[in-house]
Each structure stands twice: as C-alpha cells, then as structure tokens.
Amino acid sequence: MTPSSHSASAALKPPAPEGITPPLPVLRVPLLNRERELFGYEILFHRESGDEPMLLQSVLGMITDGALTRLVRSNRAFLNLPAELLPEDADVLLHQPRLGVVLQPHVAEDAALMKRLQSMAQRGCQFMLDVGVQDLEQGRPFETLLHMVQLVRLDAARLAPELLTQRAAYLHARGLHVVAGKVNDHSTYERCLTLPIEAVQGRHLLVPQPVAVPVLTANRLSMLRLMSVLHESNPGPVELGNIIRDDAVLSYKLLSCVNSAYFALPRQLKSVQQAAIFFGVTRMRNWVDTMAMCSMDDRPPELLRAALIRAHMCEDLAKGMPQEQVEMAFTVGLFSLLDTLMCAPLDFLLPQLRLAPEICDSLTGRNGPFTPILQQVLAWEANELASAQVPPQRIQRLAASYLNATQWADQVYASTSGKSTQ
Length: 422
Hints:
Blueprint: E1 26-32, E2 38-45, H1 52-64, H2 67-72, E3 77-80, H3 91-94, E4 99-103, H4 111-122, E5 126-132, H5 140-148, E6 151-155, H6 161-173, E7 177-181, H7 186-192, E8 199-200, H8 218-233, H9 237-245, H10 248-258, H11 272-279, H12 281-294, H13 301-317, H14 323-335, H15 338-342, H16 346-353, H17 357-363, H18 371-381, H19 385-388, H20 392-417
Parallel strand pairs: 2-3, 3-4, 4-5, 5-6, 6-7, 7-8
Antiparallel strand pairs: 1-2
C-alpha cells in the first residue's frame, strides 16, 4: 500500500464481499449519568414498514455474531424495537446481561405479550419503560408493567417542570431509576440535575453552552494556537515534526495511536516526521487535530467520540471528490463540534484558526462544498432520515459509514485516553 492510499481515519476494514447482508442501519444514542459519564446506550434501528421479520432477524444476528457488543463496547444497552417482535424464545437476550429492551406503555394491554415479558423479567432481562408524558396512573395492567421494569424514561422537553419534578420523585420513591429524555438544552439539563434522576439523554451534549464572554483555559489556548499554526503555515514533514516536537505527550499519543495493532501498518513509525512522510502532511495534520481534541479530558467522552464519528463519516462520504477535499471533509466533521468542545462560539474560534475558506463556509452554513455531507451526517446522528425521505441505497451507505466510524472513533479515543469503556 502506498502512503497516498492512507486516509486520515486510516485502515478501514475492507468492504463486505458480494452476497453478504448489508449492515443494519443502527444508531447508538448515549445516556449519561450525573457526572456526564456513560450510563448506557439506546440502540435505534431505522426500518421501513413491513420489514419487521427482517429487522428481528438482523438484530438477532448482530447479537449472536458480536457486532452489537462491539458497537456498544460491552456497556449497558437498550434495544428500541417493538416488543411484539421479541422472540418467543428470548434466550439470546437473556444470555446478554447488559442488554435490555425499551418498552412502550401500550404493551400493558396485551396479555399474551405481558406474560412473555414477565417471564423475561423474572429471568433477569432489563427493561426501560418510555412513558414520555403519559399519566403514571393508568390502571392495574400498567401498574403490573411498572413492577416489571427497572428504569422509566420521562420526556423532559414536553413535561412542565413541576410535573417532571413530581413524577421523578414519585418513581424514585418506588425504587425505580428515572431517565430524563429529550434533554435538548442546557437549562433543562441543569434543572434535571436537581431531581432524583439516574441518567440524562438528549441533544444538550452536542449543543454549545451560551457564554457572554468566551474565556479559554490555558490548555485550550495552547491547543488553538497549535491548530492555527498547523492550518496556516502549510508545513512540510520536517516542519510538522518540529511544530509538535516539544509537546511530548501529544507526540507520544500520536505515535502510539498510529502504531496500534488496529491500524496494522507495515512498519513501526518512530517519529512524527516519519509519520508525516508515510501518511502525507495533510492527513497527518488531521491526526494532530484529532489527538489534540482527544486530550481534552475535562469534556464528556461521548462528546469527543461524536466529533470523531462526524469526522470519519464526512471523510468517508466525500470519497469521489479530489483527495485534498476528502481530507478537508474530515476537518469539517471534526471541527463541527469545536464550539461545544471549547465552550466558545465559532465566530470567535474560526478567525484564530485561519482554516481554508471551503471549511469555514461549511462550518458556518454558508453553502460550502461540504455542507450537504455534514447535513446528512447530522440527520443520521439525530435519527431524522425518515422525515428527510433519504433513498434506501443512501441509507445503506450511511449505515456502513457509521459502523466503520464508531469502531474507528472508539479505537482512537481508547488509544489516546487509555479509557476503553467510557
């Protein structure tokens, strides 16, 4: 393999041979605990009407072949699929102690299904009941359902604050773990922290926190200056090596990551200069940006993983463009969460970075060449493909890109942080 054939996200697995079932369109959505560490994942499946039998077969296949375990890194996970699809023989679920199911309140009215769910609960299967805004007093069948589940999710966006407080307290008093769902802004998040809540889920993690005056810590200022030099000076391999030579930690993480077994390079790279020659300066610059952002250990790990996933997907979906633009697409994805990571608005950060105009235009929504790609990645991330009427072939393309991106992001984050499960 020649150096020019490597990408910034390096060494993707080869495409599946013809005849192999395409990847199931699946999305993992994190639930965070009160310390903003990972509590678990909800697993969402994109499906078309009428494909329920195929969906169940695909889900069971993901469980038995270990693909689901790899996707969630052996963390707690809840499958969001119709309970009616759960197999009569649910042993495949029961043999996965950290794998549960999201239930909807209407299952309480189906006596046969409830009997099956009770059997699963007695054998240790975990359930999260998604009540949303529905009343918690709906009669005896619903009460029976509450006795079966371990977690209950409330809709924090649609419930009035007083009602959310009341219901969270009621459920907590009953010994149930409460999950605040649809927490899409920071004010709602702060309010939820005052309640007896076990986990929080929503878009707030990806939304920049409003600040009156941006103030960057010394660490973030140093990182911003490094990125500015990298993107402004267009360094060669020697200059690139010199720029980060004095940052021993960054250099160590960079070389440890690219030399890891995951990427299976033909030889060990012993210096940043060697790596820049092997990968190419532009790709190596993307790697430095990646390592620098992963060093922000004061930010939630799932936020960093989200930036890495966006970067990989944007790069992958840009294939077919000139190589220089493919590498720019990586930067667009990575920096699309820069304001959230740095706790400062983009209009404050971008002038200091002096990025290429194509990158800035795409990041600020001014119809840059990568704007359509970034918008599609964001739609995938928000599980909004159905409303966007995306063709099935494109969904399969996004599904494959997403699964590759999650594996790459998890590996890179683990290599740089030493944290494989959080």
